[in-house]
Design brief:
The protein is of the alpha+beta class. 28% of the residues lie in helices and 26% in strands. The chain has a four-stranded antiparallel beta sheet with strand order 2-3-1-4, with helices on one face.
Length: 85
Amino acid sequence: MSARHYVLFPDVTNAQRLYDILKAGGIKCTFAPTPREADKCCGVCVLFQDGNDREAIEKFISENGINILRFYDGESGDPQRMKFC
């Protein structure tokens, strides 16, 4: 199994803002349900493909005042469960 990289958020508004910025910046990402092992609450997160993009993502977050809970790296499981679109 390979690692999956997530950004967790306190709300959908911040998730949508970061998703739009990452897409415009050419970073491959998608919305996904928050992994159960990452957070007990149901929610949405941004799943990004390449762990090497984390530094660029942190910069986008800082420059745009986006509120996140944290980054989370976990093992991939069922690929269809972790992807909305």
